[in-house]
Amino acid sequence: SKISVVHCFYFRGGAELLFDGVKKHQVTLPCQPEPWDIRNLLKWIKQNLLKERPELFMQGESVRPGILVLINEADWELM
Predict the structure, then answer these.
(1) How many angstroms from the chain centroid is the CA of residue 18?
(2) What is the pLDDT at residue 3?
(3) In this structure, are residues 18 and 50 in contact, taking their beta carbons and an 8 Å threshold?
(4) 11 or 3: which carries more pLDDT confidence?
(5) 3-state SS string over the chain?
(6) Residue 11: phi, psi to the nearest 5?
């Protein structure tokens, strides 16, 4: 059996305006056959949390330049 884990996503510095002004989202990601990666996670966020102006949040399959993504307080580009 698969374990469900609650994840917290924080949007700040103006990004929260794209998510109905909500800065903190607690979500349980659905189980899927393949492990979650950042690309799938961003697609899920876009489809399920993002409320407006997706072009300000994403460019292609990644976040737009200038948006800092932290995973456990570390820049995901350095991981």
Answers:
(1) 12
(2) 67
(3) yes
(4) 11
(5) CCCCCEEEEECCCCHHHHHCCCCEEEEECCCCCCCCCHHHHHHHHHHHCCCCCHHHHEECCEECCCCCCEECCEEHHHC
(6) -125, 120
- Pull the structure tokens for residue 22: 């909500």
**Which residues make Cβ contacts (< 8 Å) with residue 46, sequence separation at least 6?**
54, 57, 58
pLDDT at 30: 86
42 CB contacts (<8 Å, ≥6 apart)?
58, 61, 62, 63
Residues in contact with 2: Cβ distance below 8 Å, sequence separation at least 6, in sequence order: 31
Pairwise CA distance, residues 33 & 9, whole Å: 22
Domain positions in the chain are: 6-78
Classify domain 6-78 by CATH number. Answer: 3.10.20.30
